[in-house]
Amino acid sequence: MTLNISRLLTEYADAPLGLDNRRPRLSWRLEAEEREQLQTAYRLLVATCPNKLERDEGDMWDSGRIESDQSIHVQYAGSPLESGAHYYWKVRVWDKRDVPSEWSRMSSWSMGPLNQADWQAKWIGMDVPHSDDYRSVAYLRKALVIRKPVKRAIVHATALGIYRLFIGGRRVSDHEFAPGWTDYKKRIQYQTYEVTSHFGSGAQKAKVRKFTSLALLVSYMGYLEGISERDMIPESRTGNYGDWLSIHADTSKELISNAFYAHSTGLMARIASVLGREEDASKFREQAQRIKEAFAVKFADPGGRLKGGTQTAYALTLSMGLLPEPAARLAACRLVEEVKASDNHVTAGFLGIPHLLPALSDYGYIDTAYDLLMQESFPSWFHQIKSGATTMWERWDGWSKERGFHPVERMNSFNHYAFGAVGEWLYRYMAGIDTDLLQPGFKHIRIAPRPGGGLTRVYAEYESMYGTIVSAWEIQDGRFRLQVRIPINTTAAVQLPGAETKVEIGSGTYAFEIRL
């Protein structure tokens, strides 16, 4: 059976409007009935109108046959794209036997304003003094006189705050909280809407202003290096919120700042390497190593004990690889002691939670991680669930049976992601779905479930760019059974609990079983 093509995406979206990327990335999903199918080549066509594409004419870009298994993030490489223009594309592929597929369905995208001169609209609003008091929202109207028949109507909209757009009394979209949160002083997102159907006899195109960001990551790293002293950011320059909403466990802001300084510098080395900037990569690697060495001297003793050690302090230090061995192993033991001292309750705040369970698991303390996960009394995830939560709270004690709502009413969200970062651990460790750093984006998948916590059944699926990844396991009669589904054009390494070796598989559905 040959490959079938589905779900064409441009910049992660289906037929998006208003792109400002001059080289948009094209992706497609593949389907097949047989196992271990792969794409070996592709051909892309991009045209200025549907009729040309139907005739297999790519007047903007005909890639020709490209020998490659790449099916996501293929960068457009045709003629220059123009502001406001619409483009149409399709693709065909060849499978592992060099059998060609049919052409895919047609998809499209449009470009937004690409040049500063394209932005002509001016800000509208009311001149009112700033106040923290709640007030009714402003209702701003503009009458349009349409004198000619409408071929197409596009509107670009944004606001310095939340907006809803109506035309002729009808709401343009169901988007809430548009335009999306940014630092308004530096960057403002905008939305592009197709609104032709909102006009009977015609329309005018509305545009809004957009700011671009001046804050570059490399410049920021230079700033951090500039304020550091002997490869450490001094306490006097650590003006941050710390481990926000931790429970009776204040972590040193100086430790937090320098942990992230080391981690960010290491990430910069990896980014530079991927981009082929080896000189920069080498510089950042050497700098990251110096920061780690300074961190270990300042905050840890040879026995792995951290100054003012909290769950967050140990979790950040371990997950970011800031200590050499054997100090790191000893620090992991200290983290377990810290968890036991809190009677298997979390005390970490916003910064520590994403790293806490992974740090325990990576150093062999999966049972302790499950003890924290399955805890039912305050503070814990299950305390929120047993208290009626259907979304993650901002505070561990946002509501309690004894006190009711937390007294800080204006900072007590009941739909707040931060503590929900545990969801990553559920996927990566409990279900065992993970990426391979050498083949990112789930091109090569790691499946390594870690059972525990008294659980006997787990099902997880993840919608990757290549397709649905499934890891489902159950324990029955002392046997561990695992079912996995791997998308077309990817491969996976499966490692069962307690096994030292991995099994390499291709796409398809597989079942494994071992005795625990």
TrEMBL record:
Transmembrane domains' residue ranges: none
Enzyme type, top EC level: hydrolase
EC annotation from Swiss-Prot or TrEMBL: 3.2.1.40
SUPFAM superfamilies to which the protein is assigned, alphabetical: Six-hairpin glycosidases
InterPro entries xref list: 6-hairpin_glycosidase_sf (IPR008928), 6hp_glycosidase-like_sf (IPR012341), Alpha_rhamnosid (IPR016007), Bac_rhamnosid6H (IPR035396), Bac_rhamnosid_C (IPR035398), Bac_rhamnosid_N (IPR013737), Ig-like_fold (IPR013783)
Alpha-L-rhamnosidase C-terminal domain residues: 438-504
Swiss-Prot/TrEMBL keywords: Hydrolase
Residue ranges of every copy of the Alpha-L-rhamnosidase six-hairpin glycosidase domain listed in the record: 220-430
Reactions it catalyzes: Hydrolysis of terminal non-reducing alpha-L-rhamnose residues in alpha-L-rhamnosides
Domain Bacterial alpha-L-rhamnosidase N-terminal stretches: 148-204
Keyword Hydrolase: yes
Gene3D superfamilies (UniProt xref): 1.50.10.10, Immunoglobulins (2.60.40.10), Maltose phosphorylase, domain 3 (2.60.420.10)
PANTHER family: ALPHA-RHAMNOSIDASE (EUROFUNG), ALPHA-RHAMNOSIDASE (EUROFUNG)-RELATED
Official protein name in the record: alpha-L-rhamnosidase
Organism this protein belongs to: Paenibacillus solisilvae
